[in-house]
Amino acid sequence: MRTRRFGPRSRAERPGGCCRPLPLGAGAPGALPRRRRSRRASGRRVQVYKKMPKSAKVTPKDRVAQFGKDKFHADGTVLFCTACRKAVDHVRKQSIVEHMESAKHKQNEKRRRQDAETADPKQIGAVYTDYETVKPELKLSNECNVEWPVYLGIVKDGFADIEDPIQFWMAIEDRIPNLAKYAVVLLQLTTPPSPDGNSLHSQQPESPSACCLYLAPHGKHTMPLRRPMTGRKKQETQRSRLLARPDYQRRLRIYARAQLHLMHQVSAIALSISNMIQQLGILYLATQRTQCPTLSLGSASSGQVADEEKAILDAAEAGVLWHHLQTVDRQLWAHTSSTDWWERIVLSTWEDKQWLETFRMSRATFMHIVTKLSPYITRQNTVMRRPLSPEKRVAIAVLRLATPTSLRLISNQFGVGMATAGVAVREVCRLLHNVMANSFICLENPQECLDQPQPPPRYPKPRPGSGH
DNA sequence: AACCGTGTCTTACCCTGTAA
DNA sequence: TTACAGGGTAAGACACGGTT
């Protein structure tokens, strides 16, 4: 029998530290978690609430001591799973147990054990040798510490009309030698291996514009991108394809070594002028994508072997990501959508009959609700975009309640995102309950109800031949 | 009945420029 | 520095239908 857990897993990063999402209509902290029952059994979704006990004030360190240092580690107020390298809610013990029982965790744990068995000092030595063979002139120095502010200006100026990032970095190599070398190597190493097995350095990045993503200064040349779809199956397929390539392991080690160098370099710089890291963007973005979340900037100089393992694992992830970025079509982040149906057709042309058929209420009733709720659901206008009008918010919610339509179709119908539609529905429902319910539902005095003579119940007349 | 794949829904989080 | 607003995705959980 398959066991099922109800409600989403709690997340450690959630505001308030803990723990469960608030159910509909519950605004206060510590509100009751939701449970969902079968849609088939209940007709519509019914939510049953179960009271949860108050959580004890347990710290991440307590959990580390409880479950073992080899499995978890604490970073401030956050508990991290060492194998999965992700934050785990430390407040609820059940969350930790569930995480440890998850297939993903077991898989990561298994992979981690295998990597630990195979990562002997000889191999690490081979990585060093490999790296130095590739670029012998690259050695760590303190140059960046001194020249960092100068680099910032040069990079900012130079990025005005960039087409090929490698050409750009090679062109300014005289001015910022080490940084340019690192950037070029990083670009070359992160380029996916060609099927015919060409050497590492003869290859040029397949897409200069894609490289710009990693090299463009923050907020200047970056374009909002739609993140690629990464289904589990898709990722696994890509990973297996990538791992199957003959030169992959070797490239991975080289890449990992380069990443490690970059991390050390950035760490040294970050210690002195951390607020400038983001402005430069080159090394920061590159290392950020592969950096272990628990690896603080100050500790990068210690634990070479451990860093090496992490870097190799991270490089594998980054390799898959990079490969994916290279192979998918990227497009603007925002989808094209239309509110034509609502604004031009419904609001302008619909008559009461159509309103009744679709929204189960007349236009006048709808507008009355909008008028009542407007003070609560009117948002400020910003430069970014106009907020959703109160009419549209109410319409989304009413249509959701009045029809069995999915949230997805409704969001398409109104030209908004699905998450936005969901928020609008919950918000309007909460307001209907809090603001308007008392205006329409009045509880009479029970005694008066009993005293009043009740009219006889009215049943529909049986149809002839129905047998009832 | 158990398993598997897919669909749906919810929540968290990120991104962005401006104003307070 | 923070709040605002809405778009997007990932992840998790449940529902449900098809297959064995």
UniProtKB/TrEMBL annotation:
Biased composition annotated in UniProt, kind: Basic and acidic residues: 99-120
Low complexity: bias regions: 20-32
Bias kind Basic residues: ranges: 33-54
Region entry Disordered, spans: 1-60, 99-122
Stated name of the protein: Nuclease HARBI1
Organism: Alligator mississippiensis
